[in-house]
Design brief:
Six copies of one chain form a homohexamer. Chain A has eight helices and six strands; from the N terminus they run E-E-H-H-H-H-H-H-H-H-E-E-E-E. With 293 residues, chain A is mainly alpha-helical. Chain A has three domains: 178 residues, Ferritin, core subunit, four-helix bundle (Ferritin), CATH 1.20.1260.10; 41 residues, no CATH class; 29 residues, no CATH class. The termini of chain A are far apart. The C terminus of chain A is likely disordered. Chains in contact: A-B, A-C, A-D, A-E, A-F, B-C, B-D, B-E, B-F, C-D, C-E, C-F, D-E, D-F, E-F. Chains A and B meet through strand 2, helix 3, helix 7, helix 8 and strand 3 of A and strand 2, helix 3, helix 7, helix 8 and strand 3 of B. Strand 2 of chain C pairs antiparallel with strand 6 of chain D. Chains A, B, C, D, E, F: Belongs to the manganese catalase family. Chains A, B, C, D, E, F: This is Manganese catalase family protein. Chains A, B, C, D, E, F: Its cofactor is Mn(2+); Ca(2+). Chains A, B, C, D, E, F: Keywords: Calcium, Manganese, Metal-binding.
Chain lengths: 293, 293, 293, 293, 293, 293
């Protein structure tokens, strides 16, 4: 269950409205790595969790905070849009270059559809979608997804910080960036803890039977490009991070196999190679549906 | 530039057609974490790269291999579909329970749209989309995204391995799982190397100025749920993975701020609270467009 | 801010797993009129609200309950999937008709992608998307959207009730249907209250100036089909619901205007009618970019 | 069957081209509540109708008019785009601030993809999609959806009216706004008529058996937020709009149930909690696929 | 303007309901090459047309017929769904293998969302979308798109014909296939006529200035694969279809250029290569925003 | 298999950065008819091919070149974005009209999400999607789709050529336009060759039995609009392009059939016309689930 309190975790008011910036801020609200994504992602990982205890509690504990961040950003955006211009004719823009600049930079749907309100979309107006959520049921994989989400989110917030000089907006971003620092660290700590206690180890999933894997390809870097320095990294020689092998390097594939011949599906799919002798030229009737050779 | 060779990196032929399984295999071809995703993701990270040398070479070297995996899976799926049933009427299903089972489990568009062919979609028929690709320009964040992609991909391939007993399909999956092991290790090695050489460190992005972050919130776990064990993990006390702080724990937020008052946009957006005295009741004309209070 | 409690508003456990039904239940979790939609919709309406007080409090009060319903359904679905079959080969289905029936009816991504978990998608696997949310800033319009959402949701839950005889699932649906009854009534009460107090009246938006509307078309039913009974309803004669007019009926449009002539954009858009005399036949150079006639 | 006549219901020509406004007008053509949506929605409701007579005739009668509105807007947009600028280089914009303003505000695909033509997309370029259509087979629910669509559409048209001072565009909008007034009234009249004749009543669906609903939750407002005025509305006390109950108010849920324990799916889904004793540590083989506890 | 008549162009009733087939038939209603696509495509091409007369009349003339085909298929699908099963529990399927087969093969949203009705989606439940429409303003290109749409549509209808033995369904498909034959022929005739009268010729667009094209690459087949027979076709030697050149063949590219060096954007994008000397190590402040080298 | 070489087929560097134009160029990279679409389309057609030899070799031979074009455009876009502005506040735009113009015209996600990098999206930021790909298994249909794709692509490139005066960008476009000329010609040559050798002829699919088609409708133009010149084209009289009939012309449909009566699905779908006598008014229980009439 979720309970709502009409307070915010941190101040979320701009110094003054800025409809152009409101559009940009939509990215960290409704974009691929926005707050809706992490709130939903941690929620689904918790609801699908196969283990009670600290990992699930962690997911619930951070997830509920992120729903509050969704709220903070939505409210901030509504305030940034408070003076969104209504008159947007070409004539008005000709008379006022700043207005012209503003028009081009705003989200027109924020005005027409939402009446100067926030929306569950990214900075290009693409609606948020459920496919942004990763919840596989394997915690080491999912916590790595979470660490990535917090990294991408912090990179975006850092970029947004430099796109405004509004003190109120920057103050909120300084707060959110700090929380991204925290959560980035937490998911990496959880990744380490899963491995340390042996609950899950590398490679993920660690309980897939080794004898069902073609191990001769498991630690060999096969370089399909012609980059000269590809062999210099720690990914081409030395021990592997999973502690179970040694990297080796090969310049392109050693062996290959011929392509299998083209398929011959039932002629009633009317592919190009449906054998003509199967069709009675006079009547057009397909004579034999089974023989395709 | 890409050059194509009409050979495959590994055998990709099933023991016998299986249209039901063909649909399942679409997930690792055209799903969120399928081969199209990683091929495109490594490509865009390379094309947007800001550093010449080993990291870009690595992206190109693995990326080109993944385009070949797209091809292997597409060809495997076409073969699995080679005997896809045409007659799919309810009557036919009543007569043949196996056919009925088959019908429900196949991708109907593989038959109707592609004539028993592979398609750039996932196992539910959702088209592959560009938003599956992550390429932020920050290599530590992006390599973490890559590690996650290889982990999710390996989890899915492992599940698919147990959904068939076809020797040919399992053989290909054993190969792909091995490559996922390799690439998972490689991206983690690259993540470690970036940090070891100081090119990028945690938290990502590491060059965001510390004094622009509200540091008092950077290492504090604020638990917004009531999970009793939330404080037990290594994410609630002790040193943080970025080596720059100490985790602390707090049960819910210490302070909060009141919500800002609702916004009052221009009355010509016709929101509910457009002040009625602004409108001349007789004529309906809005008298003053600027004053909203 | 949102706070999470690890309890549920109502029991949400099935009598036994049923992976086929789990897929169906996804509709009221992640479909167009599922719980994610209403939770988000009420949230965005509240965050964009232009009036403090009872209407905004109502949005927050119901919205937070709906986030808890998202959780109840996700957890129910995870339990329904707990025994989701892994072996799904055609051979296995041939041996077990029930398995075959099951396979065709389940969401394959629930198995391959989520490892027997709930996902933010509908019953056909389409990801939930932000465009399901309506929040225009006009409360009478938006509360009508909310009433519709609760009606559609109750219709779907009622259908789902009859697709299972699992006591636990039916118990949860009986609860959710009751809440849909309540919320349907509440939004209709709020629609009535807005009108009774004159905050907003019909037609929506009520403060659009009457003299800017072509009133001669505001209450005339122009029938563009040939249905004989079209004129019999209360929508073709008598007073209008907004209390401002009288319905009249017309069989097709009285007058019409000719289509404007086709457009002639700049020839450098290379439309078919770019006048050939503008292009120097010998050199292919476009001679005059401005004259298009 | 549909028959087309090369005339328009009303004049649809701008006083002069305005490529910036053309983009805005796309919202009421191809947006969520644009003319394509209502034309298709009324069509599908009619085609799926379970009752012959006046309600189906009404759907056909309005639906066909809306297809004509699609045409009027498409033609208007093509004319607004007739002088869409071709040269859009940064240098050109530097030389001409108005051009710069124009560039940012136009739909670039209208130029590049359509050669100065209308497209089935909204004002942000999102393609129109079938999920905008609601057609449940329950007329009271669907007519409420229609009333909402006409309300949202009229709100958007009213906003668009104030974004231009072009006489021709405003003239068309004055006409469309009048038709929205009419159709808004018609659907509300139809909603009332359905109830008056007892064909369908509240709550929707009215024929869901009362004894299958947890009636103790059907009229109780459970406030999950802390808004002080939540209890003041007509939705918290007094008779309910469906005439079947009395509203009551409760501050938060009275009772709750503990979360069910996490699920334990088949270990071959490789979730984190796949019990380790099931896997032979030496060989990696999963020993027992059935026992998961 | 469109006028609706409550009659159909051809009989559209099945011999008996078949919910499994209803799902398949959705493909030619709401799929990429379904009737909604061609109806909308011909409409937008007409509305954007730059030439009055026969070509635009042709677009209107066929377009309006296609809207009627949308209706025929929607009505057919509603009838096929008339006996769609409600009880869909696993137990019910175990008791009745045919029901099990049926369940897996139907569109669950047709039942849950539409109450046994047609929907604007394809056979996998993907909503129809505006991006299926092609309308570039260049008639030769667009008529080629139309010919392709009618070809793909006829292929799909032909496949669907063999997936049922219902006399009523086959009768409708025989009619639609005949219309596809007609329209396929018409668009090809129009393509030929455009060229014969010199309105537009190959290559499209024919009025792009020849001297702005790198003609040395305009007729050379550069083979980037190793297929031995690639040079045997009429596309590798002899005159070109546009009548303006001679095909030549080359095995791979003759020359190539080195990749440009990686980009160095502003360090405030926090890319990996943001030069460290720009950042004050102690304070983290970025010292110089402009120098990136 | 694909092999990558770190060279380009042609120079792909702009004379100077231009972030506004970078957005436009995304259309031919990640739009419906961009390079990703053709690369993937030719790939899937080859992988699904039912014939070995020259046609499949052609698909592979061109397809691999197109993947290289994806790379050229991505790299060009990254360079165009190299000086993408960071500071984008309203104040900054007021001070610098050119900056204002630039801001409105750029893709904000290129900055916020990609850090000045290319992305797999179109010029409006819509992600590339698998539904852009056509691969039906019928080569004559698919090669027509390919010809259309190259035509649309060349039209777009020609328009983009006139939207910039940057020498480097124009040089690359001159090259790509030349390749579009070539590939347009090649697919048309292949279409002709398929027909000349009788592998596939018109109408597509040519092997659908003639006696299963309602031939009386196969060559008759039925004009559903009132365009006076509709009968003048070569599509209304004379021999048909498939060489199998004669066009005839009819002004509207000759005959029609009445609409079938509305459907009566199971009352448990709770449609409006679920007969009331089936429901016990007192208890609300549905008495008889089977009788719906």
């Amino acid at each position: 269950m979720f309970f709502h309190k009409q307070e915010l975790q941190f101040t979320a008011s701009p110094s003054k409205p800025d409809a152009v910036y409101a559009r940009r801020l939509q990215e960290v609200l409704g974009g691929q790595y926005g707050e809706i994504s992490v709130a939903m992602q941690y929620g689904f990982q918790a609801w699908n969790s196969h283990k009670p205890g600290k990992y699930r509690d962690l997911l619930f504990g951070i997830g509920a905070e992120e729903f509050g961040h969704v709220e903070m950003l939505a409210i901030m955006i509504a305030q940034l849009l408070e003076k969104a211009p209504v008159e947007q004719s070409e004539a008005a823009m000709a008379a006022d270059p700043v207005l012209g600049a503003v028009i081009g930079g705003t989200d027109v749907q924020a005005a027409i559809v939402a009446g100067a309100g926030a929306r569950p979309v990214d900075s290009n107006g693409n609606p948020w979608q459920g496919s942004y959520v990763t919840a596989s049921g394997n915690l080491l994989a999912d916590f790595t997804a979470n660490a990535n989400a917090e990294m991408q989110g912090r990179v975006q917030a850092a970029r947004l910080y430099n796109m405004t000089d509004d003190k109120g907006v920057r103050d909120l971003l300084s707060f959110l960036i700090a929380r991204d620092t925290m959560h980035q660290n937490q998911w990496l700590a959880a990744v380490a803890e899963l491995q340390a206690e042996g609950t899950e180890t590398l490679p993920v999933p660690s309980n897939f039977p080794i004898n069902q894997e073609h191990r001769e390809f498991s630690y060999e870097y096969i370089n399909f490009s012609d980059g000269k320095t590809a062999a210099e990294g720690s990914w081409a020689s030395g021990p592997t991070p999973d502690g179970k092998g040694e990297f080796s390097y090969r310049d392109g594939p050693e062996t290959s196999v011929p392509m299998p011949p083209p398929t011959q599906p039932d002629p009633r799919f009317f592919g190009t190679d449906a054998k003509p002798n199967l069709v009675d030229k006079a009547t057009g009737v397909i004579k034999d549906k089974l023989s395709t050779k």
